[in-house]
């Protein structure tokens, strides 16, 4: 789909829906890095269409987990109403089934960090009234997407001012048995240095250096809770400010649909603290 048609689709989806609630639509966002386009779900708050058209809005990018796609969050959790409550734009891009949201040196067809962290962000900023600055952007995700959100934020501190992880697979070294992970990370024995360098715990200090507002949570019955606790402990040892929570629950949509409410609230607070909650489009 070319950009002109994609933009027309945006207008059709978002301005033919009822104006009394948030508006949800699907757009096609091209990737130069991967030479194809991918769908994404976008949720606009109610007042985006019917409010002050000079207002710009902060954006929260929400990533799906392994085996999922761009429809997961809106299909399984009442995420749309959070756009209305906190006056934010929500963007849920497609990250592939087992991409881990990295630019794989082993699979040139899997360059999802560049896609999500640069190409999607630029496309959204060019077409919507966003606050196009790091203090007006946050990124989070579940499971594989939790790892991806933290990895992308660490590698692009000039793009994202806040980041989160929900039930995140924050240490890929503990996930060697995940189907397809070696396709993007390489053989864990032969390419151990690459696996080690991508573990979030190995880069924990950078969150403070880059002044990233950080929130992490995981269910107490989740298989990833041990690696999340290790990351939390490392952040504490380094004195890195962050929000950490464990709640009852496992690796399930019941947990994730509850956790996303707290994370969006955290990001909204971050936006307000940095003075970028909403901003006039006029200069």
UniProtKB/TrEMBL annotation:
Coiled coil: none annotated. It comes from the Bacteria. It holds the Pfam family Esterase. GO terms for molecular function: hydrolase activity. Gene3D superfamilies: alpha/beta hydrolase. This is Alpha/beta hydrolase. Keywords: Hydrolase.
